[in-house]
Amino acid sequence: MLLPRCLFALLILLATAPLALAQSLTPRRQTWRFDRLDRIGGHPTHILGHPQIIGTEYGKAVQFNGVDDGIFIDDHPLAGASTYTWEVIFRPDADGPEAQRFFHLQEQDPATGQDTNNRMLFEIRIVDGQWCLDSFASSGTENRTLLNCKLLHPLGHWYRVTAVYDGRTLRNYVGDELQGEIPFDLKPHLPGHTSIGVRINKIYWFKGAVLMARMTPRALPPGEFLKMPPRVNESSGK
Q1: Mean residue pLDDT across the chain
Q2: Can you tell me the distance from the alpha carbon of 88 to that of 102, in angstroms, rounded to the nearest whole number?
């Protein structure tokens, strides 16, 4: 039985609407400073637990306790991006859990508002008293994990971690040092939300501090990565 032409057109529209929405988004570079709790990057926040503003040698940052502290933001800063550079300046503490998710960008279904399987995460693993970077990204049936536990870093120090997707390959870095790379076909995400200090579903809490994040809708070379800010008086937290 042939479908009426109008019904067939409606089914085609429904099937292609999410992709069209993603392609119509015009993502912009966003820089988020974690120097207050009520707003991050101009976005209102939803707070879990009692994350604290602390003074550090690089200015104010948010400290997470690794148990029940988290920040949620109603924005997915890389939604619509077909290429991207995602950078975070953070400090993992020495006494956190073995597996931690400290930054999570999550797509939501525009019809239901429910989380989809499409997401991007920064994670760490604690190995022999040090940490290694774990980056994850998924889009449709494609997903990739970049985890190299042979490249370990001391805990309790500040680092800039970066994930770069150039349209063909996903790479991640600690500082300017490449940690891993893998081919990937990532379709742009639809709008969604973000969690910091914990995974979106409130598991795998992060113990440490987050200073800054920058999300750029194009692939940057290491020479253009975010620089550590100037040092300030640690006791003043200015």
Answers
A1: 91
A2: 10
The CATH classification number of 28-224 equals: 2.60.120.200
Q: Is 200 left (phi over 0), alpha (psi -120 to 50) or beta?
A: alpha
pLDDT bucket at 164, cuts 50 / 70 / 90: very high
> Higher pLDDT residue, 126 or 237?
126
**What is the arithmetic mean of pLDDT over 69-94?**
98
Residues 6+ away with beta carbon under 8 Å from 224: none
Burial track 171-187 (b if 16+ CB lie within 10 A, e otherwise): bbbbeeebbbeeebebe
128 SS3 class: coil
Instruction: Determine whether 4 is exposed, middle or buried from the number of CB atoms within 10 Å of its CB (0-12, 13-18, 19+).
Output: exposed
